[in-house]
Structure formats: structure tokens, C-alpha cells
Amino acid sequence: MGLDRNQHQGLFGESFVRVLASAAGLIVSRPELDVAGDDFTISHKGMLGPTRHPKIDVQVKSWSQRRAVQRDGYWKYRMKARHFNELAGTDFVLPRFLVLVIVPEDCADYARTRHDMVELKHAAYWLSLRDQQPVNGGLDATVQVDVPVGNLLTVDTLHTLMWRAGSTRTGA
After folding, report:
1. How do beta strands 96-103 and 55-64 pair?
2. First-last CA distance in the chain
3. Whole-model pTM?
4. E strands in 7-53
5. Which pLDDT tens digit goes with each residue over 68-85?
6. Is the Cβ–Cβ distance between 124 and 49 less than 8 Å?
7. 126-139 core/surface letters (b: 16 or more CB in 10 A; e: else)
8. What is the pLDDT of residues 92-108, one digit of tens each?
9. Please, what are the domains in the chain?
10. Percent of the chain at pLDDT exceeding 70
11. How far is CA 164 from the centre of its chain?
């Protein structure tokens, strides 16, 4: 028995982020238990700004291109309130980010390989919720977050997020 559709999509989304971080020369680690709402800690080896070994935490969500809603320059993503609350606010030691990976509807289109490249589809976007307050809500409550289409996650973007984390000691 293979992975179900959601498991496959989620695994691909997390792998997408790992590939970008690896291409950026950053270290990706996973908490032993997922109890604090962070899928990965991404870190920089050595000094960056005034900080040695700066780190950020990321929560990765994947969204099928067929279901993805983009309007007015934003991805209109609905997430569980409890996941939102693990990212909202300023009272974290490490800066935290939502990373939204938009994936093809058909898993056969996730990756294409040639002799000179591997192409991963489609793209990832990041958002800091540090300017948001946690929300009240039950287990099934959801919150819409507007993820800017301009916040494309790239090797350069990851370097910028790490620089901010290392420079300010309070994150982005």
C-alpha cells in the first residue's frame, strides 16, 4: 500500500523546501516530535551578522494547484487556527515562517528529470505571521491567511531570511 494523496502531497511539499534549503547551503533539521508547530528548523553554519549559527523555524503546508486560490496578488490560504497560532506573534525564540508549496494536481507532474536538470513543480511562498495575534477557535476553526505571490521562496530569499534572523536576533 502506497502513500495516500495527502501524504504524498505533504511529503513532496516538505521535500521541495528541503531541496531549496540544501541549494542555499543551509542545514535542515526536523524536531523529534511535532509538538510546537514547526516542521523544520533551517540554520546557517557560522557567523551571519552579529549572530553565530542563526536559525529559523518553518511550518510547511502544501496546496494543490487545482484548489489554490490566487486573488489580488495573494494566495488565499485557509489553515487551521491551531496551526496559525503556532506562527502568530513575537514571543518565539526563533523567527517562524509559514511556507506554502503550490503543487500540481497530478502527482505524476511533481518532478521531471533530464540529464542536465531536475525540475520541481510548482513553487513555494513564505509568510511571517509575527504581526498577527493568535486567534480563538475550536479544533476545527480555520483562519484565512494572505500569502503574497511576491514572496516566492528561492535560494536568495532563504539567504535574506537567514540574514534578517542573524542581524536582528528577533527575526523578520
Report:
1. parallel
2. 42
3. 0.91
4. 27-29, 40-43, 47-48, 51-52
5. 889 999 999 999 999 999
6. no
7. bbbbbebebeeeee
8. 989 999 999 999 999 99
9. 5-168 (3.40.1350.10)
10. 97
11. 16
